Each structure stands twice: as structure tokens, then as C-alpha cells.
Amino acid sequence: MKPWTLIDTHSIGDFHIFSMQRQKRLNPRTDREQSFFVIHSTDWINVIAITPDGQVVLIRQFRAGTNNITVEIPGGMVDSGEDPREAAIRELREETGYVGDSVTLIGMVHPNPAFLDNQCHTYLIENATRKKEQSLDSGEDIEVFTTPLSTIPHLIHDGTITHALVVAAFAHLERAG
Q: pLDDT tens across 69-125, in order?
């Protein structure tokens, strides 16, 4: 199996946090053209921050896609030219006011390779303590709370945590063990 040959691309538009493109590709099995829509986005990061007493720093925030409040870990977009590790430190500090003394990459996933071209990097930040006030942008309204790490599997199982990238992050943590 090999990647499908790109025949043509057409920009659909630039939408601030992503751009969209229609691609025509040649199916090597059928030799027929197929159109795909691809969203180009910067990479993302997720942060599992653990306090000295074994608590996980979680956030609640509104998500327009589901029209709901979600429980997540801190995370966000990697700024242009920014190292993902630095983005993890920045996002944790901005969204929660927490900082830690150890930052470790524990995994990476492609959020949805069917139509997204980016990666989501998951970092573990240990010994996280609240040192600052939140520094939220105009599009954020975030509530910060902590819970024992041992409760995370239950929060996933009972549907409190439903964000796929957050679930993947905790799978990375379990594997990193």
C-alpha cells in the first residue's frame, strides 16, 4: 500500500484556527479520482499535570461543538514557531495558573487522520503547583479543579470525561506508567 497520488488542490478558505482544502487524489487500486477535504491546523498539546500529592489538574469549559460543558485537561494550540514542550508549559500556566518542575512528552496522536493533518502531543508535568492567576484569552472561560489520579478511570467510564484526546492522553499516561 502507498499514499494516493495528489492530482489537484483547491483552497476552500482560511478560518483563523485552521484552513481547509479540497484535494483530488488518484486511487491506486481503482485508478479513479477521489475528492477529499483536508483541514490544515497547527499541532495541539495536552497536559496531564500532577500535583505533589497525586492530584490531577482538570478544567471545565464550554465547547461550542457539543454545546456543552466538558471536563478536560489543559491544552491548546502550538503557536507558530513554538516548540510543543514550551506550548505545554504556557498552556498549563495560562489556563490554570499551575507550573511544574518536570515536563515529559509521553505520547502523540493524530486527532483524526481522515481529514486533519496535525498532531496532538501529550505532556506530563509533575509537581504542579498553583503559582499564578489564570491568564485567559477572550474566548476562554475555564474553571480549574483537581481530583485524585486514581479517579480518572471512573470519570472516563461514567462519561464525565468524553473528549477523545483527553482519553488518549490518559492512555499514554497508563502506558508510560
A: 999 999 999 999 999 999 999 999 999 999 999 999 999 999 999 999 999 999 999
pLDDT of residue 177: 77
* Strand segments (E) across 28-99: 33-40, 44-49, 55-63, 68-72, 75-77, 98-99
Select from 3, 2, 8 the least CA-distant residue to 21. Answer: 8
How many domains does one find in the chain? Answer: 2
Judged against a pLDDT cut of 90, whether residue 1 lies above it is answered with no
Tens digit of pLDDT for each residue in 128-171? 999 999 999 999 999 999 999 999 999 999 999 999 999 999 99
One-letter identity of residue 154: H
Q: Residue 89 belongs to what domain range? A: 44-176
Amino acid (one-letter) located at 146? T
Beta-bridge partners for 70: 61
Whether 77 and 134 share a structural domain? yes
- Judge if 51 and 116 occupy the same domain: yes
What would the grid cell of residue 149 be? 489520579
Same domain, 107 and 170: yes
pTM of the predicted protein model: 0.94
Contact of 108 with 91, CB cutoff 8 Å? no
